[in-house]
Design a protein that fits this description.
- By secondary structure, the protein is an all-alpha fold.
- The two termini are about 30 Å apart.
- α12 packs antiparallel against α16.
- The protein has 16 helices and no strands.
Length: about 300
């Protein structure tokens, strides 16, 4: 029976085989190397012959002088991104859904989506140019209004606001696509009936649109929390300077420095594994809590 089903739908199975092969090769097979987090890895001996050290690398990380700072920076920036960057695409999608003029709607969508296709390197280069204390347009405006130039990129207090702002500007448009697709699936007869009953746009958004996309919001929220500790390494590393390192040093940048620059592969693998386990625990906790509260969940 199964073979018959495969023969009938062989095109679908062939199409599915490519992403399945990708995940097996690049996601599951590398898990074999996770064991170096529990070993004193030596490239000459290889993974299998390197001696076991148990949880020594984890203890070393927990007892390191900058453990609290790195963990606090990662959690703080992650929660800030979740609080600011997650709800904004929902509001943007709800507003775009209310625009009736198609030309204006397409122009707004294109304008919002465009930043997503700018590479992170180019984006941070633009930020350095705009916020330059000598030639940046932002500091020119500050001076024009009687203020003094601000060292945005070297002041640790400005690292998080700039990071969050650039993240929102770059990803909001692309993230709103999913919500627009969910809004398109809402039965238009519900809106027609609401208009007949005299409901305003705000009431239709509140009682039709938001409940209609709530399952999508819940699933994406669970995924966002499950990926909470995995902040974008590229942007944080490119924005990091010797002066703002007390706010910009997060787990991904710390792993890069320990693993790549200092070649402490086992120690960096232990830190990365710790980060992944925290994400996994958060995923299960939030998914279970959301399932109890709303009935919708990821699994």
């Amino acid at each position: 029976m199964r073979l018959k089903r495969i023969r009938v739908n062989w095109e679908l199975y062939l199409l599915m085989s490519l992403p399945v092969a990708y995940f097996i090769i690049f996601r599951y097979m590398p898990m074999y190397g996770v064991q170096i987090a529990f070993k004193d890895f030596s490239a000459a001996k290889g993974i299998w012959d390197s001696p076991w050290v148990g949880f020594d690398h984890f203890v070393r990380f927990f007892e390191s002088y900058n453990f609290e700072q790195v963990l606090k920076n990662t959690v703080y920036l992650s929660l800030l991104l979740l609080a600011v960057a997650f709800p904004i695409p929902i509001f943007i999608a709800l507003m775009l859904n209310q625009v009736k003029r198609q030309r204006l709607k397409k122009f707004m969508q294109t304008s919002i989506y465009a930043p997503y296709f700018i590479s992170t390197v180019v984006l941070i280069g633009m930020v350095f140019v705009f916020l330059s204390p000598n030639s940046g347009i932002v500091n020119h405006l500050i001076v024009a209004f009687g203020g003094k130039p601000v060292m945005f990129m070297t002041d640790s207090e400005w690292f998080r606001p700039i990071y969050v702002f650039t993240e929102v500007w770059q990803t909001t448009g692309f993230s709103s696509i999913i919500y627009l697709a969910a809004l398109a699936g809402i039965d238009p007869h519900l809106h027609e009936a609401a208009v007949v009953d005299g409901a305003s746009k705000w009431k239709r958004i509140r009682h039709i649109d938001i409940p209609g996309i709530m399952p999508t919001i819940v699933v994406l929220f669970v995924l966002a929390v499950g990926n909470l500790m995995n902040i974008g390494f590229e942007k944080a590393f490119l924005m990091q300077t010797d002066i703002n390192v007390d706010a910009s040093e997060i787990i991904p940048t710390y792993v890069y420095k320990i693993g790549i620059q200092r070649a402490q592969y086992s120690f960096s693998a232990a830190i990365g594994l710790f980060n992944a386990v925290i994400n996994l625990i958060l995923l299960f906790i939030v998914n279970r809590a959301v399932k109890k509260m709303s009935g919708n969940s990821l699994f």
